[in-house]
Amino acid sequence: MIGISGMKANAADRRDARFGYALAAPSLTMLFLIILFPVLSALYTSLHEYTLIAPNFDVFTGVENFRLAFADAEFRHSAWLTIKFVIGVVLLEFVIGFAVALMLNKVERFKPIYYAILLCPLLMNPVIVGLIWRMFLHPNLGIVNYLLSTIGLGPVNWLGDTKIAIWTVIMVDIWHQVSFMIVLLLAGLASLPKEPYEAARVDGANAFQCFIHITLPMMRTVIVVTLLIRLIFAVKTYDLVYIMTRGGPGVATDLLSYFIYRKAFVGLDIGEASAMSIILLTAILGLTAYLYRYMRAIR
User: What are phi and psi for residue 72, nearest 5 degrees?
Assistant: First the structure.
């Protein structure tokens, strides 16, 4: 009887599994078509000499496109510029976002109004953000230089100066994306238990000591997740560069995503551009895996 019951249970489990796979099949198929197929297609293309002039896979090059990518001085420049951009954007957004989140966490009145104001930039399309700020920062007609002139400062060529352009893009990206940091960090702060703070205040701890010894340790998982998501999106920054500077002046704002676009559709070398895309994807996956392991270790 036990054996028969076990066989029936196994058969029922197999039917449930088949039913579950059948339900998941449409979603898995869409994920394959939308995510996995383009990645596999890019990997296959990166192993061939494929250009828009000769769009075929007749010549197999192996890892030659990857060797050419690493040997390309412009690619290395774009990669290093992207690293500096990501570090600058993510660190500044985190510091500003955490400071604002800590202040808003203490606010009781008009909190929905503050939320609505903060979310306005985040809800805007990056293309619209780029167009607006390109007008604001126009050297002759922009409102930013006009306001500077009212206090006696000369006009600044925000997008045309090689020393300033990348910091201008960073500033605009912070304006656009810092709300994302604020919302996630504020949600984490709102979910923290009150008991540790009450016990610390009874023991005589001040606000700074509570922040260092209670808030930061309990917020570590939220901080890592927030930084991970923001890092991934910062590495892929393309819209602002395309709209505001087109990688210029010169190559001062030629971030990796935009450089890969230029290699593919201006240089017409799809094979090498695909190799660069795979390199970028591998770097993002490696960073994600490292931060995920770190997040699991601190839980």
Answer: -80, 115
**Residue 72 has what pLDDT?**
93
Q: What are phi and psi of 249, to 5 degrees?
A: -70, 140
Residue 65 · residue 297 · CB < 8 Å:
no
Instruction: Tell whether the model's pLDDT for residue 175 goes beyond 90.
Output: yes
Expressed in angstroms, the distance from the first to the final Cα of the chain is 46
DSSP 100: H
Q: How many CB atoms lie within 10 A of CB 75?
A: 21
CA 223 vs. chain centroid, Å, equals: 14
For 211, the token pair is: 């922040």
Which residue carries 């808003």 as its tokens?
Answer: 104
pLDDT-wise least confident of 7-16, 59-68, 84-93, 233-242: 7-16
> Whole-angstrom Cα distance, residue 281 to residue 284?
5
Cβ count near 180 (within 10 Å): 19
Inter-residue contact 238 to 169 (CB < 8 Å): no
Answer yes or no: are the C-beta atoms of 148 and 156 closer than 8 Å. yes
Token pair 């593919």: residue? 264
Burial pattern 81-102, b for ≥16 Cβ within 10 A else e, equals bbeebbebbbebbbeebbebbe
Residue 249 preceded by cis peptide, ω within 30: yes
Residue 200's pLDDT band, with cuts at 50, 70 and 90, is: confident
DSSP state of 156: -
Burial of 275 (C-beta count, 10 Å sphere; 0-12/13-18/19+) = buried
